[in-house]
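From the shared-data thread, chain only:
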Amino acid sequence: MTNNKRTMTREQLRNKLNYEHEHGYPSFRNEIAKVLQDKYNMDFSKAKEIVWDPKIINKITEDIEWAQHMGPNFWAKYIYEEYESVFPKRVKNLELQVSN
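Structure, as tokens:
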């Protein structure tokens, strides 16, 4: 029986974690942008732009462990609420219909 899981050495893991830390956690931010695209119908490039906004960067990196624990769906909703005016109107209408 073969294990098809991708494995990393400790050194590779350490390097990946250092890279993420030094570059502002791009993998986590891309996950948030993907949720904005999928759930809130936002263009991926616009979602990435918002995710890298200094206001959002500061909020997320304030306590990165907690931010990652809360997950990309939490942050996508937070961003949606903070930047509601930049989302397509259709999404806002759908969200209002669902909540009623």
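Residues 28 and 72 are 7 Å apart (CA to CA).
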